[in-house]
Specification:
This protein is of the alpha/beta class and 334 residues long. The protein has eleven helices and 17 strands. Helix 3 links the parallel strand 5 and strand 6. Helix 6 packs across helix 7.
């Protein structure tokens, strides 16, 4: 049933049946390295280009997630997937051979939340027993598309974040598991007029603030009703801004906030500046780190809020601002 202005609370909650995470070499060397299902020592994943490597990550993540649940591709009604590349080619080329009907999505780094929201809504509506949600990003392909070729060796400002090489896939269905998706809060575009693509945390923080507050208001909850409020990739700069914005609205989430971009890398030893980013950041962290805590019952309820900076190479080169969006997914232990 709809709740408030932007949220849905499911009368019959779908389950997050299984998930899988595939990560690159640098991610495997970070704090979550041993938690990923698959870590590749070579970021090309045996392919010839960064883009082909990203497609391979998506395919492997989907196969792993389905394999854990002993589900075949033919059992999955729809696949909701996206990435950061032009026309979503990493997704369309990565999952093509699975033969699952596809909805290609773009929500920048918030795409994992968008995919999970649509997958859970589809299961709850009775449109299929299983849905797949998958996202990915790759440092090489993202840098080439949005910033500079890797060989350029440009100097990165301290506010910049490191695009995660990784993919996360999630099987959502009506088969009982230890994690339910009990609600979603669909975000809206929030634009504070910022234009610095090397400071995405600042661009995305206002959208995260808007969605978190809307979730609390729509579902009549307080921040303390969640064991963790998890943002996707605000990083160290964006987290500080989020705290300030939340306090300005009368909310304090400092005690139970977590950011995937601050969790996936070791800031001191891995030289990732403000933290991680990319579609794969929130998705792999959710699969490898957050869901196991929910499955074990260490956390009972989590608000997962992946964040995205909605820019393109065209909009950036034409001097447009970088608006943000964030989607909230309520995950509960059961």
């Amino acid at each position: 049933m709809t709740k408030g202005l932007q949220s849905i609370e499911f009368e019959k909650s779908p389950y997050l049946v299984s998930s899988a995470s595939v990560a690159g070499k640098k991610e495997g060397e970070g704090p979550l390295g041993k938690m990923f299902d698959m870590v590749e020592k070579e970021d090309l994943f045996g392919e010839n280009t960064w883009e082909e490597a990203e497609s391979t990550m998506q395919k492997e993540a989907c196969l792993l997630a389905m394999g854990k649940a002993h589900v075949q591709a033919g059992d999955v009604r729809y696949l909701f997937g996206g990435d950061l590349l032009r026309q979503g080619v990493a997704t369309s080329m990565g999952v093509a051979e699975l033969g699952i009907p596809l909805f290609g999505l773009f929500g920048a780094c918030s795409t994992s939340g968008e995919a999970l929201a649509l997958a859970s809504m589809s299961v709850a509506a009775g449109y299929g027993d299983y849905m797949l949600a998958v996202t990915s990003s790759h440092f090489g392909s993202a840098e080439k598309e949005f910033r500079f070729p890797l060989g350029y060796a440009n100097q990165r400002p301290l506010s910049a974040q490191w695009t995660v090489t990784g993919s996360g896939a999630f099987l959502v269905g009506n088969r009982r598991s230890h994690v339910r998706i009990t609600g979603v809060t669909v975000g809206k575009i929030v634009d504070f007029g910022l234009k610095d693509s090397q400071n995405m945390g600042a661009c995305m923080a206002p959208a995260a603030c808007d969605t978190i507050i809307r979730n609390l208001v729509d579902l009549e909850r307080t921040a303390e009703d969640y064991d963790r409020i998890v943002t996707g990739d605000l990083g160290y700069v964006g987290q500080s801004i989020l705290f300030d914005l939340m306090r300005g609205k009368g909310y304090d989430i400092k005690k139970n906030h977590m950011d995937c971009g601050m969790t996936i890398f070791d800031q001191m030893s891995q030289d990732t500046h403000a933290g991680g980013s990319g579609c794969g950041c929130a998705a792999t962290t959710l699969s490898a780190y957050i869901l196991p805590k929910l499955i074990r019952g260490e956390w009972k309820r989590v608000l997962f809020v992946p964040t995205g900076a909605l820019m393109s190479t065209v909009s950036y080169n034409e001097g447009s601002s970088v608006p943000g969006i964030a989607h909230g997914i309520v995950l509960e232990h059961c």
